[in-house]
Specification:
The chain has 538 residues and is an alpha/beta fold. It is built from 22 helices and 18 strands. The longest helix has 15 residues.
């Protein structure tokens, strides 16, 4: 069996389906074999960054390892921003690529892949013999899974045509044993928690990955805590009467007040970075109990009173069992908070600033949220529009939420949303992007068209690079330098094979209904025209 065929066979054997990628000299043989000989499902992107973004989104939505493949040289250099985003999001992902043929030291696409990808934070693996290629794939998958980060797998292209033997044995993974909780630290944590009167429980992405909703919610209810999430865990407490939403500098006013009023914070699987803590100011004077599976994550951004290393769900369960067995009673003082949250009117957060041909993006998101299907996934690119989406567009389940802001890059949202849509075909995936980020990767919208994916691309178009517009104003510089005269996005959406709707008034949003998201109308590009001069953070 040729190495390329053994590689395709192993991908199927390890359950890697679909495979995302962009074809080139370094991977075309095993991609063809994967599809034709082994029946694999392949999703071809229009750009290498899109392929990595799709694998990233797929992994986040499924909790499995996402796999992408690109060719050598520029095929790999094109992935670096998306690869760094996946590293910083903690996504288990394998990127299969290849160094150029060693027989041609002057190959035009030659570049040192290990040195190239090292700054992204990815791991790097390269088999030394053709015979080792299939097993090395298994090791890369296991490493990505155990370390929750991308692994770049360099399979030298000259190995592909070599005859090898392959038994397609199952990968041998050492079982990951959870470390026993330190009883003294557990006791110290419960001592801090038992004295609280207005506790706050925060769930981060680690809580999602541990499937900790039931255990953490039970613990929070036992101690009478208000609950909140990081951006990466949006939807974790969906429907809970004391759900404050996002904790941090993007919290809504009522949520922010309740966070500030808390006298103890218990964080499960959250990094507690400067966004969640508003540079530490939200937790000032409050004892913090920090739980995370990785000891390296404890006290990384915020010094905790007690740091517990362990799985979020397991620790929450252990805490609950101890509290119940010792019959500790809590006198939580959250009187009236549930009613206040229930009666909250989000439109009171701001004064609508819609114009004759534009809408206030905050009002637009509020109106749109009432018209979205309940079976939805929500993916957001980075940009000035984020606060409006995160505050006013709910996510029913945290697995179906993804944000591509971990490296501060725009332009990654469409690829990630495509991967989420592939992972959750029974949902409608809504990808929210700005006009600048949308233009960077708009051709990837055609990928959802080619594969018939249930995706809606929502382009919030202020005709500018919005963050730069605001910052130029802050520098007393002319913000017009950030303005861009784009073509009509609706025309582009149709040209790329999809359907398109343009919204210039709130009344036009009100006309959207369930038929808008009907399968026969998808993929759909929904353009929302907004004014760049409005201060959406006021």
């Amino acid at each position: 069996m040729k190495t390329f065929d053994a590689l395709a066979r192993r991908l199927i054997h390890y359950g890697i389906e679909p495979l995302f990628g962009l074809m080139g000299d370094a991977n075309m043989q095993f991609i063809a074999s994967y599809i034709d000989e082994h029946g694999g499902r392949y999703i071809g992107s229009t750009h290498e960054a899109g392929a990595v973004g799709m694998a990233d989104g797929y992994a986040r939505a499924t909790g499995t390892v996402g796999v992408a493949t690109v060719t050598h040289g520029p095929g790999t250099t094109n992935t670096l921003t998306a690869l760094t985003e996946a590293v910083r999001a903690g996504t288990p992902l394998v990127l299969m690529t290849s160094s150029t043929p060693s027989s041609n030291p002057n190959h035009i696409q030659k570049i040192d892949l290990e040195r190239l990808t090292e700054p992204t934070g990815s791991a790097f693996r390269r088999p030394l013999r053709a015979q080792d290629v299939p097993d090395e794939l298994g090791r890369a998958l296991a490493q990505a899974r155990s370390e929750s980060r991308p692994v770049v797998l360099d399979i030298p292209v000259e190995f592909h045509g070599v005859e090898i033997e392959d038994t397609a044995a199952a990968p041998r993974e050492a079982p990951v044993a959870e470390a026993d909780l330190d009883p003294e630290l557990l006791d110290a944590a419960l001592g801090v928690i038992s004295s609280a009167r207005r506790p706050l429980v925060i769930a981060g992405r680690g809580a999602v990955e541990s499937d900790g909703h039931e255990a953490i919610t039970a613990f929070a209810d036992l101690i009478g805590a208000a609950v909140a999430t990081t951006v990466a865990a949006r939807g974790f407490f969906s429907g809970h009467e004391l759900d404050l939403g996002i904790c941090g500098n993007l919290a809504h006013p009522d949520g922010l007040t309740a966070v500030l009023d808390s006298d103890c914070v218990i964080a499960f699987g959250a990094s507690l970075n400067s966004y969640t803590t508003d540079s530490g100011s939200l937790f000032e004077g409050k004892p913090v109990v920090h739980i995370d599976r990785s000891a390296d994550h404890l006290n990384r951004y915020h010094q905790a009173e007690v740091g517990l290393c362990g799985d979020a769900a397991a620790v929450a369960t252990a805490m609950t069992q101890v509290l119940i067995s010792e019959e500790i009673e809590f006198a939580s003082n959250r009187a009236g908070l549930a009613e206040k949250l229930r009666n909250r009117v989000p439109s009171d957060d701001f004064v609508d600033a819609s114009g004759p041909d534009t809408v206030d993006m905050r009002s637009a998101m509020l109106r749109l949220s009432k018209r979205l299907p309940p079976n939805r996934a929500v993916v957001t690119d980075a940009g000035r529009f984020l606060r409006s989406v995160w505050r006013y567009i709910d996510v029913p389940h945290p697995r179906h939420s993804a944000v591509t802001h971990n490296f501060g890059s725009i332009g990654l949202g469409i690829g990630c949303a495509t991967g989420v849509s592939v992972a959750a075909p029974d949902l409608v995936t809504f990808a929210f992007v700005g006009d600048g980020g949308g233009m960077m990767s708009l051709t990837e919208f055609n990928t959802s068209v080619r594969y018939g994916l249930p995706l809606v691309l929502v382009v919030i178009n202020d005709g500018s690079y919005g963050a730069e517009y605001s910052k130029l104003q802050g520098f007393n510089a002319d913000p017009r330098h950030s303005l861009v005269q784009w073509p009509e996005f609706s025309d582009l959406g149709v040209a790329l094979g999809g359907n398109a709707v343009t919204v210039r008034s709130l009344e036009e949003i009100d006309k959207l209904d369930e038929s808008t998201w009907a399968p026969e109308n998808l993929p759909l590009l929904l353009e929302i025209k907004v004014d760049p001069s409005i201060d959406y953070y006021a």
